[in-house]
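Appendix B.2, paired examples.
Example (i):
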Amino acid sequence: MAGHNKWSKVKHIKGAEDAKRSKIFSKLSKEISVAVKESGADPEGNPRLRSAIQNAKAVSMPKDNIERAISKSDKDNDDIIEVTYEGYAPHGIAIYLECMTDNQQRTVASIRAIFNKFNGSLSKNGSLSFLFDRKGVFTIKNDQIEDIDSFELEVIDAGAEDFETEGEFITITTAKEDFGSMQKKMEELKIEPENSGLERIPNNAERLDKGKALKVMKVIERFEEDDDVQNVYHNLEIDDDLVEEYEKLSN
């Protein structure tokens, strides 16, 4: 599953400890508010809201912030819309952006400016969507699991398509339709994911030489820093060595 945004998710989790905390909280608040607008304020009947709350708790978002995001008025929620943008980073790497915004004109101008700055290109909506599949993805710290083999069998029975252990994290992937049942299985097993949600997984990951890949990772990082961008998906294959090299250059 190399190439999807697990790199971004792990950074998202670890980033809660640094100066980016307020930006992370802001994006999570938007997700909670839109989830309430979509399917109501009861997490029991709203899988998207349940995931958003779990993700907020995983980065130690204060309870008051979470409750404030849930209780925002309908008028506040109506100001925010969900939009997506697609394009190519340098060297032919596909980028798929999920955004939440109260000003679409501002957002598209910002997205276009980032593509242009890094010699990429903004494409028509729908032109790249065939490169990605919508999947449920759960990221779990493995210190919650006593018996990995038994746990893997449990989640396979609940609909897991892929089970991957890497470092301190376990990543479980399901079909979009099985996302809710996997949430219930996590609750049944008293497992609290570090992050969970519906993601766009590339059908094929593209491998670049290190220099080119590092440039594309810079583009990805720049999109993630934009306040209106909730999620960045791409088809660049990223391994541990590449992440380590990028972090050295960024520090």
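Example (ii):
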Amino acid sequence: MVPPGGPRSGRGRGDPDALAAIAAEIVECRACPRLVAWREEVARDKRAAFRAEDYWGRPVPGFGDPAARVLLLGLAPAAHGGNRTGRVFTGDRSGDWLFAALHRAGFANTPVSERVDDGLVLTDAYVAAAVRCAPPENKPTPEERDTCMPFLTRELDALARLTVVVTLGGFAYEALWKLMQSQGDVLVRPRPRFAHGLEVPTDRFTVLGCYHPSQQNTFTGRLTEPMLDAVFARVRELTGP
């Protein structure tokens, strides 16, 4: 079962069938017992503010434009965000920041991402997470990360026009780097330390580092709107018109 508002395209090019097949496998995955138990417990107990809502309570697939040149890679769905709505970065404060920035940069038709039927369409951008289930305390284990890795590997293959991957936080950066190492990509050594604004060219795409738009970062001023906008301005420079 793929959630409404799964892979959508603003341009109708690329390989949507491959991405849809990956999404269908993701939402049926039960490979990590700890994550299965947690995501389903959260979906049963619910947060008081969302008591009347039906929670998704499954793994959350990526979504966006199959012809995307830009991939936004996050950590994992939020317990009461993506795990509730069925779409990554949707229905939580991190998504408020991310999609507002994507809209300002021209990658999204609206700055709002509240639910899967809200009309949001991404153009030239695709959004996914390194781990597809909401983890306890927002902390997946290395084993859970590695179990999810084949899904991201296949998404990268299906997103054939990819030019830039923006890693939202150190966890996503490390997950992507490990994936590229396993695929035999030519990488600089030693691995550059994650930082906001980090830029690492590879033989497949350019990797950009960006602080995760979590409340921990946005409330403290570690990540500001101008900082986020500067990342997407650089994305535009790298992708061209």
